[in-house]
Design a protein that fits this description.
InterPro entries: OPT (IPR004813), YSL-like (IPR045035). One of its GO terms (cellular component) is vacuolar membrane. It is found in: Membrane. Belongs to the YSL (TC 2.A.67.2) family. Helices cover 68% and strands 0% of the residues. The protein has 11 helices and no strands. It has a domain at 1-163. The chain is mostly helical.
Amino acid sequence: MRGLVVSAVLGTLFCIITHKLYLTVGLIASLNAAAGLLGFFLVKSWTELLSKLGFSQRPFTRQENTVIQTCVVACYGIAFSGGFGSYLIAMDDMTYKVIGVDCPGNRAEDVKNPDLWWIIGFLFVVSFLGLFSVIPLRKIMIMDYKLTYPSGTATAMLINSFHTNTGAEFAGKQVNCLGKYLSISLCWSCFNWFFSGIGDSCGFDHFPSLGLTLYKNTFYFDFSPTYVGCGLICPHIVNCSLLLGAIISWGFLWPYISQRAGDWYPADLGSTDFKGLYGYKVFIAMSLILGDGLYNLMKIMAITVGEMCNNSTKQNNLPLFKETT
């Protein structure tokens, strides 16, 4: 029961964090280690507090910690893959009106206002489809080919390390560090809220650190701990690539295309109209992503086919020995 209670609390917290990251940054970091750490800390604190009050408590085991971590990961995984930050919110009547009733392709019969029971059924179907696809992959990749599952292995080692004397002490230090920076982030967000600009005006959320000219091209600093945290957790190659893409697009490409308004596209379109500059932004970015994905897919298929051919050739060239009687 205590594991389910802790799972519900942490699952709610991590769902809020996931939605915040999904709707602002667009990148979802792996929170497995944080889920295991916070689950261990909360239940350990729970048992110690009740023991001091004179209540007998069952010991906190690795299995219970694993259940908590699995439930929390499942909660924020559904929050990410369930479409709450993308297609679910694009199906309702409000989005239909925002796009424009007269917009070609925007039809009233395609509107769906998701209610609670519809969303529950939808998530149930989505989750079980994922389960049916994971089971065959588990049999092939982990059981047959004996491949190491890196995320699961790392989580198991982390949970096992918590349930030792040294690991428990180290986990306490990690939680103290987590609480310290969480408090700093919370206080800074509250301070930032008081000095944020109205709309798109200057403020701590739109700080013109490079001047007003570049500010008009959206080159400003956002003092949001969310973006800073994502930059800290992402590898440097990701951060450098994002920075390069931002400089090329917002510094050169979009200003150049915007000067061709009236020639390449109608000049009287809105900022989110796919027939205008926004269409160039979306489809150029999607083309780059899909092109790189297609290259990696072709590369993986070529390597896989080559390995299969090599294994088949080696099996055909095996020497045969006949037993003599």
